[in-house]
Hints:
The complex is a heterotrimer. By secondary structure, chain A is mostly helical. Chain A contains ten helices and no strands. The radius of gyration of chain A is 22 Å and the shape is flat. Chain B is of the alpha/beta class. Chain B has two domains: 27-128 and 228-301, Periplasmic binding protein-like II (D-Maltodextrin-Binding Protein, domain 2), CATH 3.40.190.10; 130-227, 3-Layer(aba) Sandwich (D-Maltodextrin-Binding Protein, domain 2). The longest helix of chain B has 17 residues, at 61-77. Residues 15-25 of chain B have low confidence and may be disordered.
Amino acid sequence: MHYHWNWKIFWDMTPEGTGTYLHTLLVGLVWTIATALAAWVIALALGSILGVIRTVPRRWSAIGTIYVGVFRNIPLLVQMFLWYFVIPELLPTGIGNAIKHMPPPWASFVPAVLCLGFFTAARVCEQVRAGIQALPSGQRMAGTALGLTLPQTYRFVLLPTVFRIILPPLTSEFLNIIKNSSVALTIGVVELTAAARAMQEFSFQVFEAFTAATLIYIVVNICVVFGMRWVERHVAVPGFIGPSVQAGAH
Amino acid sequence: MRTTTLSLAFAALFVFAVAPASAQDSGTLKKVKDSGTITIGYRDASIPFSYLNDQQQPIGYAMDICYRIVDAVKAKLNMPNLKVALNPVTSSTRIPLMANGTIDLECGSTTNNAERKKQVDFGMTYFVIKYRYVSLRSSKMDTIDDLKGQTVVSTAGTTDIKALNELNSSKNMGMNILSANDHPAAFLMVETGRAKAFLMDDILLAGLVANSKNPSEFHISSASLGLEPYSLMLRRDDPEFKKVVDDTMTKIFTSGEIEKIYNKWFMSPIPPKNINLNVPISDSLKKVFEHPTDSPDPNVYK
Amino acid sequence: MLGHFDYHEIWVNLPYLMKVGMTFTLTLTALVVVAGIFFGTLLAMMRLSSIKLLSLVATGYINLMRSVPLVLVIFWFYFLVPYIGAWITGASQPVKVGAFLSSVITFTMFEAAYYAEIMRAGIQSIPRGQVWAGYALGLNYWQTMGKIVLPQAFRNMVPILLTQTIVMFQDTSLVYVLSITDFLGAASKVAERDGRLVEMYLFVAVVYFIMCLAGTYIVRRLQHRFAIAR
């Protein structure tokens, strides 16, 4: 069986008539980045709050544990389906119908962003918690000794250091969220992997399509790693060598 | 930085190293003979051509024709104990799986057209379809123009979704086109209100509606697009196997055996719900049975 | 809403879901764990090797697998494996590979990269003195690794390896993109056929949740048992 190579396929027009195949892939890339960034904002915000909650010496810090337990033990794809198919059915009919009648692409984009955001928040929560627990307990005690309340201790003493410590694992999580955005193709978000697949279906050029997608992901990867390294250097406190936190798996 | 450049080099090397050079084609028959197995690709929800019954076994009009071809292969290779392996395919995986050798014969609801003939080959036409769309009766949609500005869904990898895209751009219909993994998923989108219409081959729509929970709430449009032939799919540049397929099908058609098979699936109650689709042989199909052809040109079937 | 929850639907389809779906998922996970850890350890050793070529190839492979989404890798391998098979066996045609075997190969190749990083951390956590002692006793590289370093590295890394396995168990659900019938795929087929999305997907979520929670609990217990007093 011969495979018919055709690297010029990228400059052919798609049957949708909206541009070349290369253009479709780049539009897919834009959707990937949009989904990843929007979800990252949610993940960072929610994850930080939860991470703090988990380390607070109060009874209600169990909320954080429960959240992490739920969102880490259900596969991402299943969560995606729950957000897209199940939640509109479980909400009151008015809201449910309003969600279902959202015009595409937002009908897929919004659940995808929420799903990825909440999923990654659980992981960010664990990183923040590990970061806080890696700090010497003396920091917290010193805060109390200075007369700071608990929120103030977190705000002025603990969190600034914690975020600098966990920048490497956070980079890892950001890369993960970019990769996980590909799961959104199952609910209709036409991100990069979906665009490559559509290209494969319309043009039958399997290898060209997926090679292009792979190369684009690698390039994005390199950019993010360099970007985060710049951020790390930019926010580093001179002379402070914090304990490094074990990066999570995946 | 060096290691990531290396990753790129590795990726490139990986792809090119396994790129198959122009291999000598030894044909499906030789492959089947050597391995002792013939692999058939089936669909899990293309009623009544190829779909799973309650015991998760593939049955259908196309499957019956395929099994007769398997018998012919057994006779030709003198292998009465030839094993038949069944491999599920979807609209989007069927052509790549045929191309990479996973399946030898695809028995489903695949359209024969000139563009696909660049990648694969087809047997004799055994059905002729038109594209129609299904919508909720309450939406009161019936013509092609009713689709303007609406959310329309079709199944990934089909000629229907390609036609839908071409319609959208050529006539400026402003449709939002969604792509579903398989036919039941697309049908469900219309059922739950996520899409207003599902464009698909009319016979497949009839099967889906008939087997749905509430058939009366759906309406299949009277307006139609296009006209396409269904055929079995097989590998390109394989004259020996194609001859076996074509000869078997011509025999079935001209001997009248095809009518018995047709009536079994289209004019009698079929599993899983024992519903009768009641679709008599159309005039274009009658012509095809009398003069079997494997032409990809829709004009031949008008 | 939840009042119309059709428990009967789940009960009726349970045999199919478990016999076809869960069996696929569990078998896939089991095979991939064994093969993945094996190849991962090899990759880790290659990466830490003093032979530059081996080290570069291993690093390149690991970085490649960690840079691309699993979904893309699944697509790649599903269409690519028959060609690789032909290249390896020297066949003139692409080798036939079924859905299950393709999935096993895909996940093994992908997870090996992640297991490799874990094993690398494990190997590097063993004091160098162990290696030198091995050489001093007259053992060669393979004996030192096999009898001294790897057993200790393994023991240290068992909790993390198991956690990664649980993650992989969840990731097997992604074969859905190829319409392969794993646990989620089976539930999906039933859901679409009968129009019962809510029941099926909630059921799948609950089952995965219980299984992963149990897995995590077992890992934590094992962590206590495997802990070495230092």
